[in-house]
Amino acid sequence: MNNTVKTGAAIGSYLQDTWSNGAGKTAVINPVTLETVATVGGRGLDLEAAVAYARDHGRRSLAALSFAQRAALLRTMADTLQAHRDQFALQARLNSGNTEGDVMFDIDGGIAVLKYYASVGKRLGDGKRFAEADTQPLDKDGHWVARHVLSSVPGIAVHINAFNFPSWGLWEKVAPALLAGVPCIAKPATAAAWVSEQMVRALSDADVLPSGSLSLLCGPARDLLDQLDAGDTVAFTGSAETAATLRSHPAVLHRGVRFNAEADSLNAAVLGPDVTPESDTYALFRREIVREMTTKAGQKCTAIRRILVPAKHLDAIGADLVQALSKTAVGDPATEGVRMGPLQSPAQRQAATEGLSGLRAECEVLCGGDTPEKLHGADVKPDCFLAPTLLRCTDPDRASLVHEQEVFGPVATLMPYADLAQAGGLLARGKGSLVSSLYSDDTQVFSALLDSSAGWHGRLLCVDSKLGKAHGGHGVVMPQCVHGGPGRAGGGQELGGLRGLLPYLQRTAIQGQAKRVAELTEHDAVWPGV
Ligand code: NAP
Q1: Could you tell me the pTM of the whole model?
Q2: pLDDT for the residue 1
């Protein structure tokens, strides 16, 4: 790994194809040592001019490219970032306390999304627009017809991201937008902006970005949404509270700006009633619980927060999970053997502590709940660390907070269920989740949970002993599948192959004489009907 990155510099913003720092000096820290790794300014930047530039130059340069050319651009971006991968990995460790496993999620995951959309886009060929496969007759003899086309929305995309995925969060939004022909202004969360900035800097240094196609705003978003108008899109990832503020912004309420939100989620894992603690399927379940609670120190929107097990196994599984979690070495990810790092900042640690104290009113603490007894590594400050924390709630029907309050850290609650009807009811108490994973070897168990719960979820991972470990994991978002959940999870949807382009496309029915409509749409890529 390249271990020579320079710390202490100012994180810049890339607006109008130019780097500038703006005023202010907010410290961005290393959560392991609390040392400042960089500073963020961002105040006083001309956001009105930045939006106008993206709208004008960005749209023009992307409109000149076909799908295949935009796909080639994504591939070049991916290859450029890949060449600096180890530098970004080190920066992710220094700015977010990432372990190598965390880096695979965020840095490698982000580059993988760019590669995925590059390969999807290459197959779309030289068109710049989609047309649906079917032409609909509108009169008796089929002389007058309609065909639906999907073209780039006429505005720009603003992407506001959470602190936990400064790479993946950036590229999973940018890739489909650029492929659709829509210029982006991305705004990373301030606490973790360093990696996002360094990635965009690598692209601008390599001069691979068409003029105005990608801008980056580091620091406070201030009046960014005030600049938006009909035709623009906002894709937000973060807390439900900020989502609610942005959703009620006049640009969204009164000016027709499209708004997509990915927010909090009380994701679950359900162990089927057919599974015994001695079985292979249980081992898969345990592996996933431990991985989900400790990867990114539990700071994943998809992390398992509620663990539902048959009531008769509650005690045995509680003891077993405590034993498994206690083996997690916590500390400085630079130290050999460390499997879990810190939370992003003292403020995030404080928020997790406050959330935990709410849950304690309904639960007992089986393990963790505080700073780990042993922190591995020299110069480790305890301020951002929280031990893997397993809670137990014995009456989940009567409890409320365990189904409502997301503690954004290595925290999950074990709870019993008596039968599948109760398990389905408990899943629904999350009021909309990104993902739940189900562990069983019985189709009827999966089927019952799917019937009761699919409508509450964006994704359901069904694990049986035959699938074994041959899946990416409960928390891994595959670009082929939709990401997003109903209700509390924000109600938005991203990715899902070409579906990920939909927020950036307008569907228009082209009506006319059959031959004319065929001529007008003959060079369009065929929309696969998703
Ligand atoms: P957050 O506090 O809501 O911030 C998210 C982003 O919004 C940051 O970039 C923040 O910028 C920005 N922001 C805050 N106020 C704003 C305003 N008035 N106008 C414009 N932008 C504004 O969330 P977070 O603490 O970064 O992330 C943690 C939360 O995100 C968790 O609840 C987690 O569940 C959720 N999350 C969801 C997903 C998903 O896909 N569903 C993925 C990851 C995380 P500053 O940093 O500059 O304040």
Answers
A1: 0.95
A2: 44
